């Protein structure tokens, strides 16, 4: 009703200040946009992160620091790592923050080639290519790999960067039910007759796109079963490991390692450097032929300024720590720690009676709130007690499946986690989101 809304109106009227920030529905076309804010209920502007691997953050509106349970800093490499940071500072002095050039015209430093080789070795593929942003890696690579005459079959909960890449490719896009190999098979069967070779069917090529760990669900991909279906119908597999690379697997090599999948069975392995590696950028790892093809044809490689050298150095150093090539066993300790922390936190939340989505070993832990009206209260009360937790709602989730999403880090100590659990438990009682009796097994 307000003049400011200009045709946009909050739906589910009366749902408190959540709607003043996040959810606005343009009745005609369902576009969403935020128009105002509720400063005490959200993270607002972060003044600085502490020198403790991003474990605490300082909000400008609040002088106290918050325990950070919202960052993707899975291995604790973000900010002030004893091995990475000095190397990053050196690279800043040597190469400057930006190459100010595209890869093919002076924007390739020896750090870029070193990281491409290291990523390929780390994820277990013959070659890799870097991009300045994880989001762009999906949205630009998918159209470079497939176009008109091709078919993309995408998990229904794939990230927006995949959705945009698929839509922009010109290929026909079909969606299969989240993490359901049997529905994937149904969709594939509808599109082609079983057993035909790649060349004798209505599609030039078929790519099936999935994620290693789903970012809003905390759930591991059913990768072995998905790959079996792809092989049966001769479709290519594209795996986004944004949340799984570095975070799971005995040596941090992601869901393939965790689930015992041969990386030769995944055609395109995509990942970002913004989570486990504490940096920016993204990669594609694949066969030498695919990477060579992308280097010659992908506009985001040919026309975009290359990845910032200090960001590249951060990833090189982080992978060296993970592989133990820094001369310490910190990498192995971090990997053990994130697994231990994640499994401890998840089981404690379940014992308290919360409905927690996702699988063991996954550091992504959504607590279901359901009713979006509970979001501001949950977020505000946690922040008041100096715990920062990300809350997510429509359009990132279905309208009535709002949730708080906790991300666990190897840098959290047991005391941090216990403090977080105490606050979440109190707030959970206050907001009324303990849907199961305490100590009851998960349904
Ligand atoms: N893929 C997935 C699954 C993601 O969750 C994200 C962002 N969180 C991206 C890609 C984009 O990565 P970035 O934030 O590094 O641009």
Overall pLDDT metric: 88
**Alpha plus pi helix count:** 15
Give me the side-by-side strand order of the main sheet. 6-12-11-10-9-7-8
* Distance, first to last CA: 43 Å
Number of E-state strands:
16
| CATH hierarchy, class of the largest domain | Alpha Beta
Low-pLDDT runs of 5+ residues are 1-37
Look up the CATH topology of the largest domain.
Aspartate Aminotransferase, domain 2
Strand content: 15-25%
Model description:
The protein has helices at 18-21, 84-95, 103-107, 110-123, 134-145, 160-169, 181-191, 223-232, 255-259, 288-297, 299-302, 309-323, 330-352, 374-384, 414-431, and strands spanning 8-9, 25-26, 46-49, 56-59, 65-68, 127-131, 151-155, 172-176, 206-211, 236-240, 268-272, 282-286, 364-370, 387-388, 390-392, 402-407. The chain is of the alpha/beta class and 443 residues long. The chain is globular, with a radius of gyration of 22 Å. Helix 2 packs antiparallel against helix 12 and helix 5 (134-145) runs parallel beside helix 6. The longest helix is centred in the C-terminal third of the chain and has 23 residues, at 330-352. The protein has two domains: 3-68 and 331-431, Aspartate Aminotransferase, domain 1, CATH 3.90.1150.10; 84-323, 3-Layer(aba) Sandwich (Aspartate Aminotransferase, domain 2), CATH 3.40.640. It has a seven-stranded mixed sheet, sandwiched between helices. The protein has a four-stranded mixed sheet with strand order 3-4-5-14. It has a three-stranded antiparallel sheet with strand order 13-16-15, covered by helices on one side. Residues 1-37 have low confidence and may be disordered. Helix 6 links the parallel strand 7 and strand 8. Residues 133-135, 138, 159, 161, 211, 215, 240, 242-243, 272, 274, 282 line the site of 4'-deoxy-4'-aminopyridoxal-5'-phosphate. It is found in: Endoplasmic reticulum membrane. One of its GO terms (biological process) is ceramide biosynthetic process. This is serine C-palmitoyltransferase. Its cofactor is pyridoxal 5'-phosphate. Pathway: Sphingolipid metabolism; Lipid metabolism; sphingolipid metabolism.
